[in-house]
Structures are given as structure tokens and as C-alpha cells.
Write a structure and sequence with these properties.
Blueprint: E1 2-6, H1 10-21, E2 25-30, E3 46-49, H2 55-60, E4 68-71, H3 76-89, E5 94-98, H4 102-110, E6 114-116, H5 118-132, H6 142-148
Parallel strand pairs: 1-2, 1-4, 2-3, 4-5, 5-6
């Protein structure tokens, strides 16, 4: 599968390493070339320095062949804007945007964009843990993360 990730922070770099290790073709875009250090030496996917809002940067990253586009930068506006570009301009089949603001996440979800709101997910996990003393995770990826973080 051809996967394009915008944002090489903690989430983007971890996801890129996981998907690459699973055998997918992964390209990651970030504004800062220094961010790619998080990928480690084992990551052999593509790295593109540039602004994900720029359609030329997206083309250079291979968005026209992407089957999945994931926006996980620190900015809700950038994530939602690039998700809309990926979905409406380039017709990427699966588009996901991380949105911190629960109200915005819900609004964009209602507009047909898959959103991941880590704010509500973390709050729900904490609430559940307080009530049950168990985490609502099917699998704890912390060990896997440490193995990938080379």
C-alpha cells in the first residue's frame, strides 16, 4: 500500500516506521529536515521537506499514487486543509486527519473527513482507567515503539 504521512513528529515518525516495517511504501513530509532524525536508520521510505498544503510538494511526495493520506502535524488547520486537498483534489481513497479540538473534529467528521481526536480518546481512556483500573486498548504498543525507535 502507498501511504503518505504529513508530519514527522512523534506520531508521524512512529506510524511511518510501523507501516514501513509492515511492508508498505511510506513517504513522509515535514517542514523541517531535522524532524526525519526520528525515523532512525532502519527506515528506508521517502522523506520530503516541504509544506503539505502546497500541491506541488504533495505531487513530489506521490499523492497521485497514494492509497492512504494521514495528516498528523501539530496544527489542526494544516491537518484539515491538507486532508481536504487529499480527498477532494487528489481523490485519495483513505484520508485521516488528527484534530486536537473535539468540536472541530466532530464538524469535519460530519463533512465526510475521517478525524482522529486524540483529546477525546485520551480523556476516555483515562476515565475508563479510573473506573476499571484497566486500559481500553486492544494492544499496548509501547514495547513495539521502543523496538522501532532506533
Amino acid at each position: 500500500m502507498n501511504i503518505l504521512i504529513l508530519g514527522c513528529g512523534r506520531v508521524g515518525s512512529t506510524l511511518a516506521r510501523m507501516m514501513y516495517r509492515d511492508g508498505h511504501n511510506v513517504t513522509i513530509i515535514d517542514l523541517q529536515s531535522e524532524a526525519f532524525r526520528r525515523l532512525g536508520a532502519k527506515f528506508k521510505g521517502n522523506r520530503i521537506v516541504g509544506n503539505g498544503i502546497d500541491e506541488d510538494v504533495l505531487r513530489r511526495a506521490g499523492i497521485e499514487q497514494a492509497e492512504v493520506f494521514i495528516a498528523v502535524t501539530q496544527g489542526d488547520n494544516r491537518n484539515i486543509m491538507t486532508a481536504q486537498i487529499a480527498q477532494h483534489v487528489f481523490s485519495v481513497p483513505k484520508v485521516i486527519a488528527r484534530i486536537y479540538d473535539p468540536i472541530r473534529a466532530d464538524r469535519y467528521r460530519k463533512m465526510g473527513i475521517t478525524t482522529l481526536c486524540t483529546t477525546t480518546i485520551a480523556s476516555g481512556l483515562l476515565r475508563d482507567y479510573i473506573a476499571t483500573e484497566t486500559w481500553g486498548l486492544a494492544k499496548d504498543y509501547s514495547k513495539e515503539y521502543l523496538e522501532l525507535n532506533v
